[in-house]
Design goal:
Strand 10 (about 120-125), helix 2 (about 135-140) and strand 11 (about 145-150) form a beta-alpha-beta unit. It is globular, with a radius of gyration of 22 Å. The protein is built from eleven helices and 16 strands. It has two domains: about 5-235, Ribonuclease Z/Hydroxyacylglutathione hydrolase-like (Metallo-beta-lactamase, Chain A, 4-Layer Sandwich); about 240-364, Tetratricopeptide repeat domain (Serine Threonine Protein Phosphatase 5, Tetratricopeptide repeat), CATH 1.25.40.10. Helix 5 (about 240-250) runs antiparallel to helix 6, helix 9 packs antiparallel against helix 10 and helix 10 packs across helix 11. Strands 7-8-9-10-11-12-15-13 form an eight-stranded mixed beta sheet. Strands 6-5-3-2-1-14 form a six-stranded mixed beta sheet, with no helix packed on it. It is about 35% helix and about 20% strand. It is α/β, with parallel strands linked by helices.
Length: about 375
Amino acid sequence: MGSLFLCSLTPLAAVTLEYVAHACFVVESSSGERIVIDPFNSNRWLGYSFPNGMKADAVAVTHAHYDHNAAYYIPRAPVFRKPGEYAVGGLRLTGVPGKHAEPYGKEFGQANTLWVIEADGVRIAHLGDTGPLDAEMIRGLGRVDVLLLPVDGDEHILKFPEVAAIIESLRPKITIPMHYRLTGLTELPASLGPIDPWLKSRPEALRLSSHRVALTPEKLAKDGQIWVLPPSPDVKPWGPRMREADRLRLAARKAPEKEAIKQLRQAAALAPGAMRPSLELARKLDGARQSEEAATVLREALSRSAQMDYEFRVLARDLLAQIYERRGDTALAAIQYRIILAESDWLDPLRRAREFLAAHPANR
């Protein structure tokens, strides 16, 4: 593999790889085209926010989970989600059909596109939340120079033997772990482990001081390197209002109904740009037979957060449509279901939308 670089008659320009945080990276070609891979939602689970004002020529998304699918933070950039071959200036993208690691992702069929981004002769593979690779996936990925792979101490996505098997199968020059708890930034999320337990068996691993690295032929000349990159300094921990909103939301799960509704009201007020507290409040209200107030909460949340959470926006519209349907307002229900058909990867909302619109042809 190394000879393909070192014996080239024309010197290869450097590709820049930037680690943002979690599973998000930026690849920039020598001619300046930039692609962002798997941007994450600022207001859920991770405990830190996506950088403001990021610009790119395109976005690649591996799958529909919110911590990989926040392309709305990068407006006007085309978004690639499905397997296929694409080009963005000097960047070539190949999307290979993959499968999300068990047991997650069943709500959207466990689709997980494995991306290979090639620029200036360097091939970078981002595997999203992959499970173990089969022979067809390995063939589809082809030569991999730099591998971006989910690894964490709690084995949230891949077990350590599965990590080793993927590295052995693809034999990258450089492996860069991702999708682990960034302990220097935040103690969240509790359900995701740090990288250190995996690194204990990898004494050769290098901890780089910069979140940006230029990939040159010299750096790709040695097999089996492991690099650990720090997150971007533009990634900031949640502020006190968001932290308190998340604490209240979690506390509401264990509280009696009346107290839970009170806590969720407070959480929604503290974090008005986050969809999750409002959606959970609406669900509680709907379950308590306060459906009209639930509908109001959902409408207000959608108006505030229309570009802030793809997944919960769909789930909010699904609940709102069901409330309209129960009260017999088929025209308003149809509006929400038509939007779901246009936007959603979620199987249950899609099924309900199709069934409703098939049963109410006048509202199609």
